[in-house]
Automatic annotation (TrEMBL):
This is MATE family efflux transporter. The lineage of its organism: Bacteria, Pseudomonadati, Pseudomonadota, Betaproteobacteria, Burkholderiales. Its main location: membrane. Coiled coil: none annotated. InterPro entries: MATE_fam, MdtK-like, Membrane_Transporter-Flippase. It comes from Acidovorax cavernicola. It is a multi-pass membrane protein. The keyword Transmembrane helix applies. Keywords: Cell membrane, Membrane, Transmembrane, Transmembrane helix, Transport.
Length: 473
């Protein structure tokens, strides 16, 4: 394929995004990124494993806080991080190197601002929020202890994820991957040491898990800053580039803020299900919270594929290569569906091995297994919707992913509430979550296949019509 302009003066990483075969390039870029996302997801799993040793109340407390922690993670890494990576990729694709360098500083300022907002919101409103979500007694106390520690250091989480997004926007997935993997190696001994102590020191309990997490983000941020200051970095965020310009803030925020709406809707869906499940006691709450972590595990896995897709689609759109951007999008959607569906089916068939990693309470195991059997077989639709969200970030067109997520929220929340009102119990609550995932994936895929990125939506009238549009793209 010929490009719209000569590419001989482009950096090899940028030229690869514009010219190399799509699927091999996506897989090659995704491999380290999936590794980094698996490692980052294991951070939460490591914590959950060790906190589970403290008892069901501690596990239930983490279940209350986890959707909010993931909201921060997904907002900083997926929503605003996607806006950062997309802006840098499009600037590099359009040969605006000065803007790309300046965008680094703008991204750091945004990270600090949002991190402080999360700190204030959760330190002041945490007790009310976790109470509304069903937390009481010892479970609520554990939630507050963990939450206050984690969100006191929210700026570190935001800074780490924003710096990673900056580097991924250049097409470099390896550096964030390496930093994260090394960080997980640090966390494996640090987490139990701080939770349980050693020798005469008795440890910090659940607060120790939070402190270990913050140390991981602090050390990781320092490593990423060192890379950006090194000669190996494609970007040059010098002090001369530190000039705040509203158009650059707007370029990040117009994608990041819209993406945040989508992220909030995702986490509200799970938060509402957490609150509805809380009606059935701490054991059920721990079971749902533990089982739903598998869905959260899919987020970083799909993000591992979605991050290079943001870079490829953004660079192609910046260079005017619309057809290539769409072909990359559908290739990513097929890969994401297959990966998420395999995981969901395995969890539905064999739920207990996953759940027993975190505890052996009979009610917890029964509730968690029930959720995975009902919702797991539909995880493929979640994978499709999520990867198309990332592709839409690269294209700078997020309306339909947001509408798809809002539709998911409406179905999950309304359906779950009606299930309780009509006596459907947990089966009805979980079924509503599954149907919501199907709606989420189909709405976004249909809109993009209908031309939503380019100002028109010609809805395919049948499933065959949708598949034909995808094949033609």
């Amino acid at each position: 394929m010929t490009t719209s302009h000569a590419t001989g003066d482009l950096d090899p990483r940028t030229r690869r995004l514009l010219e190399a075969p799509i699927i091999p390039t996506l897989l090659r870029l995704a491999a380290p990124n999936v590794l980094v996302m698996l490692a980052q997801a294991s951070v939460g799993l490591i914590e959950t494993y060790f906190v589970g040793k403290l008892g069901t109340d501690a596990l239930a407390g983490m279940a209350l806080v986890f959707p909010i922690v993931m909201l921060m993670q997904m907002t900083s890494s997926g929503a605003m991080g996607g806006g950062i990576a997309s802006s840098i990729a499009r600037a590099l694709g359009a040969r605006r190197r000065g803007d790309a360098d300046a965008l680094v500083w703008h991204a750091v300022v945004i990270a600090i601002g949002f991190g402080l907002c999360f700190t204030l919101a959760l330190l002041l409103g945490g007790r009310w929020l976790y109470g509304v979500m069903g937390g009481t007694g010892a479970a609520l106390d554990a939630a507050l202890t963990y939450s206050n520690w984690v969100f006191a250091g929210a700026v570190l989480v935001w800074l780490f994820n924003s710096l990673s997004a900056i580097i991924r926007g250049t097409g470099n997935m390896a550096v964030p991957a390496n930093v994260t993997v090394v960080g997980v190696v640090f966390l494996i001994p640090a987490s139990p040491l701080l939770i349980f102590g050693i020798g005469p020191w008795g440890g910090m309990g659940i607060a120790g898990g939070a402190l270990a997490l913050l140390l991981y983000y602090l050390l990781g941020s320092l490593a990423l800053i060192a890379y950006l200051r090194s000669p190996r970095s494609l970007l040059r965020p010098t002090l001369a580039a530190f000039q705040m310009r509203w158009p650059l803030f707007r370029d990040i925020l117009r994608i990041g803020l819209v993406g945040t709406v989508s992220t909030v809707a995702t986490n509200l869906s799970i938060g509402i299900a957490t609150a509805l499940t809380g009606h059935f006691g701490a054991g059920a709450l721990a079971g749902y919270g533990t089982a739903s972590r598998l869905e959260y595990l899919l987020v970083p896995l799909v993000f591992g594929l979605g991050a290079p897709l943001v870079a490829m689609v953004g660079t192609c759109m910046g260079a005017g290569l619309r057809e290539r951007a769409l072909r990359a999008t559908w290739a990513g959607a097929a890969l994401a569906f297959g990966m998420a569906e395999v995981i969901g089916l395995a969890a539905a068939l064999f739920p207990r091995p996953w759940l027993m990693l975190f505890g052996h309470d009979p009610v917890m195991l029964e509730t968690g297994a029930h959720y995975l059997r009902v919702v797991g077989p539909l995880y493929g639709f979640f994978g499709v919707g999520l990867v198309l969200y990332f592709a839409s970030q690269g294209a700078g067109r997020l309306l339909w992913p947001v509408l798809g997520n809002i539709a998911r929220l409406a179905v999950a929340g309304t359906g779950g509430w009606l299930a309780l009102q009509w006596g459907g119990g947990l089966t009805g609550v979980f079924a509503a979550q599954g149907v919501a995932l199907v709606v989420y994936g189909i709405v976004i895929a249909s809109a993009i296949a209908g031309g939503a990125w380019f100002g028109r939506v010609g809805w395919p009238r049948t499933t065959q019509g949708l598949l034909r549009r995808v094949a033609q793209a």
